[in-house]
Amino acid sequence: MQQETKKKRGRPKTFDREHTITIAMNLYWCKGVDGVSLNEICNLAGVSKPSLYREFGSEDGLMKEVLIRYRSKILEPVFEMLKSPGSFRINLNRLIELNTEEHPGMPKGCLFVKMRGDKLKLETETRKQIEVIQRDLLATYSEWINRAKLNGEFPGNIDSEFAASYISSQMGFARNQQARGESVSQNRAVLEMALSVFDME
Amino acid sequence: MQQETKKKRGRPKTFDREHTITIAMNLYWCKGVDGVSLNEICNLAGVSKPSLYREFGSEDGLMKEVLIRYRSKILEPVFEMLKSPGSFRINLNRLIELNTEEHPGMPKGCLFVKMRGDKLKLETETRKQIEVIQRDLLATYSEWINRAKLNGEFPGNIDSEFAASYISSQMGFARNQQARGESVSQNRAVLEMALSVFDME
DNA sequence: ACAATAATATACCAATCGGTAATTAAATTT
DNA sequence: AAATTTAATTACCGATTGGTATATTATTGT
Lengths: 201, 201
Fold this sequence. Notes:
- Two copies of one chain form a homodimer.
- The first copy, chain A, is mainly α and 201 residues long.
- Chain A has helices spanning 17-31, 38-45, 49-56, 59-83, 88-100, 111-117, 124-150, 160-179, 184-195.
- Chain A is elongated.
- Chain A starts with 16 loop residues before the first helix and ends in a 6-residue tail after the last helix.
């Protein structure tokens, strides 16, 4: 489908963009943005530093691409779940589950939440991308809550945008606790208590 | 009281230990443990690096002393407040106030909470000191809650130690949000909602 | 006066950081 | 075959990191 007749001039590219982004994502996820150097990424990805710079321009450019990748691979399923028509309670429980369960073979915690926490230290492109995701996340929570209100599944006297921010706060905190090695059960108990403020009596 | 007759041999010490700890504390507090180098501390404190190493042994040793200082100067008043006989509600409001207000001229957020969040990156002495403070903090919360239970000011069906951990979580989160520049009012609103789970009806 | 002691300051160490200049290799166009 | 274009590699840059070896300075004991 892509055997374009237009042959490109010059030495053909062997740089594996997707693989490099994957390696960088896992490193940032495991060790945090402060704990990873470009040299380490290059070595693990089997890529030279100038190649990486020609592809992404800077560390900032690479981080931005990592964030975009993380969103589509990891966050998007959560977004989809929140847009699905299930009952508020069921989806809330799913949300708690998604934010506390540990995936074997995958890093603990959430790369987006970690980077959001270090936002002030990051550069422009990465920061902008964080803000885009954060905005979309809050909007998704808000819409979810508004639908729940229409169904009488959510207290009408609580402002939707504040509730969205509150949920985002609690989920983010849980993710960070998880990354720090807190126990899953303790983590889940805290979340359930914090979210019980939305219970309808 | 200390004009000991025993005169010390060798060149008299001019190294200002307290001043150096103060400078280091403010730097760590403002910029985070990852964002501060020993060189920076030495330059700002007007101290040579070998002097600092002879006094504290290592970066780890300095951080431990900084934490001890932070506890006695900043955290201890909170501990005292929680041990005071005021009503639970009043002290809870004071606690929210203490964890959200901004002190002009002082760094935002809480150094202890920041370091606790980076615990896995820190070295042994510092980590041990963090754990000591954390244990004392949770114990203080627990005792406070137990006294409130006896006075009928706290729901008896909630485990005290879990509640202590919950409060610690929420306060720590608020401190971090504050350090990241979140608005005080938003921050306070989240805290009040999260702690409303302890309301007696 | 002179040795012993303790604290200071200068200058350095190897390692690492993000980033790049200069060269070489592989393809297409003419 | 030669010129052109694009990518990859090597080797480097200055700055900074935590940490130290060495020399100097200031005091006391003899």
